[in-house]
Design a protein that fits this description.
The complex is a heterodimer of chains A (265) and B (216). Chain A is an alpha/beta fold and 265 residues long. Chain A has helices spanning 32-42, 56-70, 86-95, 104-108, 111-120, 158-168, 189-198, 212-220, 231-234, 240-249, and strands at residues 5-13, 16-17, 46-51, 77-80, 99-102, 125-137, 140-147, 152-157, 172-177, 203-206, 226-229. In chain A, strands 1-3-4-5-6-9-10-11 form an 8-stranded parallel beta barrel, surrounded by 7 helices. In chain A, helix 1 (32-42) packs parallel to helix 2. Chain A is globular, with a radius of gyration of 17 Å. The relative contact order of chain A is 0.14. Chain B has helices at residues 21-29, 40-43, 57-64, 68-76, 86-89, 133-137, 199-215; strands at 8-13, 32-37, 48-51, 81-84, 94-95, 108-112, 120-125, 127-128, 151-156, 158-162, 168-174, 177-185, 188-191. In chain B, the strands form 3 sheets. Chain B has an 8-stranded mixed sheet. Chain B has a 3-stranded mixed sheet with strand order 5-6-10, with no helix packed on it. A two-stranded antiparallel sheet of chain B has the order 7-9. In chain B, strand 1 (8-13), helix 1 and strand 2 form a beta-alpha-beta unit. The longest helix of chain B has 17 residues, at 199-215. Chain B is globular. The chains are: A alpha/beta (265), B alpha/beta (216). The A-B interface holds A 1-5, 40, 45, 67, 70-76, 90, 93-99, 118-124, 171-172, 200-202, 225-226, 255-256, 258, 262-263, 265 and B 1, 17-22, 25-26, 29, 54-56, 59, 86, 116-125, 151, 153-157, 173-174, 194, 196-200, 202-203.
Amino acid sequence: MLRPRIIVCLDVQDGRVVKGTNFVGLRDVGDPVELARRYEEEGADEVVFLDISASHEGRGTLLDTVRRTAEVLFIPLTVGGGVRTEDDMNALLRAGADKVSVNSGAVRDPDVLTRGARLFGSQCVVASIDAKWMDEGASGPGWYHHTHGGRRPTELEVIAWARECARRGAGEILLTSMDRDGVRTGYDLELTSAVADAVDIPVIASGGAGEAAHLRDGFTQGKADAVLLAGILHDGLTTVTELKSALEGWGIPVRPCAAAGEASR
Amino acid sequence: MSRQTRPVEVALFDYGAGNLHSLAKGLEAGGARVTVTTRWDEALAREALVLPGVGSFGAAVQALAGSEAQVREALEAGLPCLGICLGMQLLFDSSEESDGAGIGLIPGRVRRIRARTVPQMGWNDVEPAPATESQAQGSGEPLFRELDGMTAYYANSYVCEPVDEADTIAWSTYGHDRFAAAVRRGRCWGVQFHPEKSSAPGLRLLENFLDEVEGS
């Protein structure tokens, strides 16, 4: 039986995790390599690095960060931010990413999804969609895809865009509700289930997680295959272990966290 | 968990795309010395061959570039091998994914997984097949030593269908599709999941493989 996944997202800029974390006992709370390892030990099923570096130098640093992470992280690593071409994808995969997420790059050139899938396999290609509700969107009221960290609206209605990404070869959709991002009132279940119903590839719900019940609802009502978390973990409000324990109590068949000591190497 | 004895010399074949870094590090953690190579003569000259699980069947067949008979002969002659995901699929005759011949060590074909949501992406069970009579007298399949109830990471749209069910040493179920999670013929193993992405149990599996190589 396939297990619903908990994915931890780290925002990385110039080789450093942007938002501080409250982990106790870390040598360097800003080091993405050490944090990723720590989340694997806690029971995270995957890790995402979202690179928000603007500069060219930052991109080079990212490849080095990915390389160092892949040496010590033995769960899947997705890397996104600024990916435009199949060459960008290849550089990240060769450095040690297992999947690459594409956002603005796919809006500008949707065929990059197809080329990436053909070269590396669909399972490497994640379409990242930032959805925001618009009363007056290009095709009437609805959720519209936004680029540039959610700042720039597009004319792409989210359900149709998700379908197109899947048709073009994406193997997964990372669906972020910009309306819920950081609010901690729960995932946008209506949005998530609408996209999950519309495509036949896995959907990751993102934006809005505040407590374990939100994850449960994301899986059940939102029909998400995976949920993405950031703030509530980084701020030390809860742990992956605690969340999985609560989900197990509700009968959600998450992957059990490693027994104490098992994850130590 | 580093090995007490000398490192095992492992060739990791590079089809030219995707992440080989984690797998190389995982093998090294288990006590291997890894050579990444794009040349079959070099790949077949080490103590063991690992076929990684990144890319598409068509691209990997291109990398075989007519060497499939040579690779098959080396494996039939006893070169220990571990095929991972696509690398497992490459051990078979052909694939629905694209034209071209695989290595053909294990009779059978590779077909698309039957489920609503494809690819299968995430952690799923690895259920060792019931032991045959001869195995039951031994200590079970060595690849899964101390890995009862293992959950592993899969990322695949295709699965292997061996002609001979005895080639399947573990099963898994996705949706209503029951498929071979692992196969074995002689000293050649294939796993549909990614041990290098399956945390501590996955690293243990790589170590078990290296133990078998060393014991051979």
